[in-house]
Amino acid sequence: MDSLSDFAVKLREFQDEYNKRPHSTLGRPPEQMFEEEKAHLLKIPSIEPALLQFKEPRRVSNDGYISYDGNLYPVPMRYCTKRVWTEIIYGRRMKVYDEAGKLLSEFDLYLQKQASRPVHPEHEAMNRQFQEKKTRVRSALVEKFISTFGEAGQVYLEGLRNQAGANLYWHLAEIIRYQNIYTTEEIITAIKECLNIGSFHKNSIKRLLEKKEITPLSLAGYNKTNLNLPSMKIKRDLSYYDLNESEAAIS
Pfam families from the entry (predicted)? Predict the structure, then answer.
């Protein structure tokens, strides 16, 4: 034999030839019996090699980062607040796995402290979706304000836009919420008064509305016989409050 490869070939030939001979006890060749039993053999369970390596647990922050040696590394956002496992390779590279051993991310380790937080690849898409949703909500709020309070509301909206700036939409939402107490006509009247004095703030409208007397709820058509009360016994017998001997002893 010239090499290990040559030895492996000859060993395989010997095994094949020997397994064709009848077994001294069973009376049948092992090769034939193996073909019959092959379908009934259990599959050898596969083990993820990564599970055999030493790893350290890390908790993912609520914004999708893990910390290692004072530096931050982004991981998929679906693992926020969950535990992942890190494997450090020769102090140069880090692999991140989930609880099942699935590889999530790989990073070259920072050899110096980060100057700033690294950009998370999923944050841009999330921020874009949030901005689009916020724009839709704000547009709907402006449309509702104008449709509810008409021309006076539109003029007041422009004044709020100039004076309230970024707080514009908070003012609009608060003014619309006044409809829970006051009528739309009363709010429009207050808006017009604020326009006359050049006051653009939701509290100005609120103070004018608070001067008005709130109309009590009408009881017209009220008839106590129309009340649909459940037919049940609502009085409790006084014997319910009697103490038995054990309770009396405790007290």
Answer: Mu-transpos_C_2
